[in-house]
Amino acid sequence: MTAFEERTDxxxxxxxxxxxxxSVIAVASATHGDEATLWTSAATRQVIYLVxxxxxxxxxxxxxxxxxxxLWPVFYGAGLLLLAVLPxxxxxxxxxxxxxxxxxxxxxxxxxxxPVVALAAAAFACGSRGKLSLSRLLALGVVVGLPMGLIxxxxxxxxxxxxxxxFLGVAWLAGIRPRVLLSLAVIAALAAPIAWFVVLEPYQxxxxxxxxxxxxxxxxxxxxxxxxxxxxxxGGVAGKGLFRGSQSRLNxxxxxxxDFILAVLAEEVGWIGVIAVxxxxxALLLRTLRTAAIAQDALGTFLCVGIASIxxxxxxxxxxMVTGILPTIGVPLPILSFGGSSLVATFLAFGxxxxxxxxxxVNA
Amino acid sequence: xxxxxxxxxxxxxxxxxxxxxxxxxxxxxxIIAGFVLYGGVFWYLxxxxxxxxxxxxxxxxLRQQIQRPVRGPIRDNHGALLATNxxxxxxxxxxxxxxxxxxxxxxxxxxxxxxxxxxxxLYERQKERPRFLPVxxxxxxxxxxxxxxxxxxxxxxxxxxxxxxxxxxPLGAAAAHVLGYTGEATRDExxxxxxxxxxxxxxxxxxxxxxxxxxxxxxxxxVLEEVNASGRPLMxxxxxxxxxxxxxxxxxxxxxxxxxxARAFGDHAGAxxxxxxxxxxxxALYSAPSYDPNLFAGRVSSATWKALREDPSRPLQNxxxxxxxxxxxxxxxxxxxxxxxxxxxxxxxEIFCGGQARFYGQVRHCHxxxxxxxxxxxxxxxxxxxxxxxTLGQRLGxxxxxxxxxxxxxxxxxxxxxxxxxxxxxxxxxxxxxTRGEPWFPGETISVAIGQGPLNVTPIQLAxxxxxxxxxxxRVRPFLRQREGAAPxxxxxxxxxxxxxxxxxxxxxxxxxxxxxxxxxxxxVLAGKTGTAQVVxxxxxxxPGDHALFIGxxxxxxxxxxxxxxxxxxxxxxxxSAPIVREVVRGxxxxxxxxxxxxxxxxxxxxxDDGL
Lengths: 364, 612
Prior knowledge:
The complex is a heterodimer. Chain A has helices spanning 3-6, 10-30, 42-62, 65-70, 72-89, 110-125, 134-152, 157-161, 163-173, 178-199, 202-212, 221-234, 246-249, 261-294, 298-323, 340-358; strands at residues 100-102, 105-107. By secondary structure, chain A is mainly α. By secondary structure, chain B is α+β, with helices and mostly antiparallel strands. Chain B has two domains: 65-250, Penicillin-binding protein 2a (Domain 2) (Alpha-Beta Complex); 255-309 and 316-591, 3-Layer(aba) Sandwich (Beta-lactamase). In chain B, the strands form seven sheets. In chain B, strands 2, 3, 4, 5 and 10 form a five-stranded mixed sheet that branches. Chain B has a five-stranded antiparallel sheet with strand order 12-11-21-20-19, sandwiched between helices. Chain B has a three-stranded antiparallel sheet with strand order 1-8-9. In chain B, a hairpin with a 6-residue loop joins β20 (547-554) and β21 (561-567). In chain B, α13 (332-342) packs across α15 (386-407). The longest helix of chain B has 35 residues, at 14-48. Chain B starts with 13 loop residues before the first helix and ends in a 21-residue tail after the last helix. Mean pLDDT of chain B is 87; it is low at 604-612.
């Protein structure tokens, strides 16, 4: 073992970088033909984000996760503050005040907030020792719910929704009783009609209805889903070949380099390629869960489960969108979708997982 | 609650460890199940339904593009162009290359010094179309305007000049009815003509353009293009069906003769047909008043169309094939032939004309009040004696007259490959029973014998009638497309009868006091018969005057042309119609070098400008 290998979870880094390289190719294909120079092209920018991500990953995992956990109130507080002032300072971009613009840089604070909240939830819940009291459950709900609410009012429903798996995953591990879980489900079911009539905007309702009947507005709300399904389906077993997907190349598929990047891949590399990408994600998540199982203490276990929950949820929602079995709610596919905030936040999160893994032996 | 994270105890509680392990396993199973589920969803979409989605992707990507055929030109029998395609320049705006279309329109009209109003109006009507489609700003501008715009293309970068093929008829109004024109296919025609006819295709509307439309039109080609999501074509993927351009239609027409004929007609209404009596090949076919078929080359303004349609002189009607006229004295040729062939008139027999006579209890007059005296067939035709022919009519009866009329080609369409032909009317006992419910009275035959009464003919029928005498007794089927002629049919005229008729017809033109002496050309022998078709005046003051007819053939001894000319309200007999024939025949012979050229002139004087 080299010194680097001793101090780095190279397997996980390899999984992440592999996904990152696939992303660069997919983004290059999706933006092929866009007017851009080599240095301003999306693929080049994605490469830069990837390099930043790798650096962040290596640095984060070198620090003991206990040290990170000790600082959780600082990160959490700063994050909440940022999210709270965002609606006041941010310029709306496609209807949402989600981005902080610092010169040419555009940051999405809700992305780094994901690992921060995972850290906070883990720190908060790890002392439960298998008995989750109602007050602790409620407190956990507040810790997760506060940033989620702030993100929801941006409005960025997609990102907000990814906090629900975090809450459920951490609560589950903390020992939530199935009866309480069932009660939550009943409450959610009862709240659904209220949400439908009070909270949801008409366009959101349209998107939900489109899942059941994509043909209801083929050139409007249904267009994205229909074109995405055509892209996916027409890829067949082996795909049309890289850079040769007509749905993507001829602009039929909107948001193709961001939320719908998997549709581009599905079209160009087919079912085999999709399975390869999904397997990589599965391997990453299983390694995270394995890390949770072998962590030296409950904090490590909870941290890994929180991160696994968020990212698994995000992947499931995104793939559901692309295949048209879930409404289109604007959730990017981690690492693969073009975008720096999401990519770096993902590397950061799994850096924390790696930190847990590297310190699994108590006497190390 | 404050935890010291640095000194959290490792798991020592066995129960707690087991519970964590169980719950982690549940999470693991859930995640694996999720991925397996999605693997299945992708399998379903990509493998099970893959073919269907591939088809949909192709539908998205590919578009059929129509390549329109170029319509075939129409030529005369010497190869001169009668209908062709001229380049038409239209000015278009590419909105993808400009910010403010209205500003560009203003700049364009400013530079050309034209009113921006119509351009703006045209733009407003098209602005809802997809942006990548160019907008038509000025249809069919002249070459000069096109050149000026091209020269300023740097200042007007979004403005393009596009060349298209437009139908052009060099003879203009002179050949409007015979050539016809084209128009955009109606929705109904497209439905019936599918799949060879598509919206936007042009089809022949009337005339040769319509009669030979399939031949001239060709067939559009189809290419498969790849388009992007906004519909912009990127490349041709495959040619599905090659375009087949229209073929050249060579007609029997003589462009110069057609032009001479139209010029000779001047402002008069009427119609004329010139054909080759040997074959039936139509050399010239004119109907007046005429219109400029070039008006129909693009979109016809509704005002133009309305004006043409509602013009009381009916310029859109082709009088040469659809105008019905009373044959007047030209019919006497048929009565004479019938009388000789049926044996009711002995060769050389003379009949007394005292200026009037009683037939079936009714007194009939000759147009010469004091009569022609004892008169033979020759003189009777030359002088158009009515009493002589009343007598022949009385001897023949309506059935013999009907039989011979039909043999000469009256009473049914001649079969000219032009369409729109009417059959005219030859009366009979059967016809009268059918239409009036009463038998034919012998007294009615008397009027028919001089070409009056219920007898209707078209100019093309009269031309065929003249051709029968000219070619020695063969009824020809007139035709317009080269090589369309049918074998002429002998109608059973003996050579003696033809000689007799021809001699009389020569006298009509060449003889002292012949009614068609105005057709005379020194050194050329023509034969003919004039007629005056009575037009019933609605009131005495507004009598429009009778129609003048002249049919005939020439030059003798081997006639190359047979004709029928009708000048509506042209007064008596050959007064206006004969000079038209003279000009046309003279031009024909001059072009062949058989006659010394003279300056062409307009024969029929313009109405109302005698002073000029």
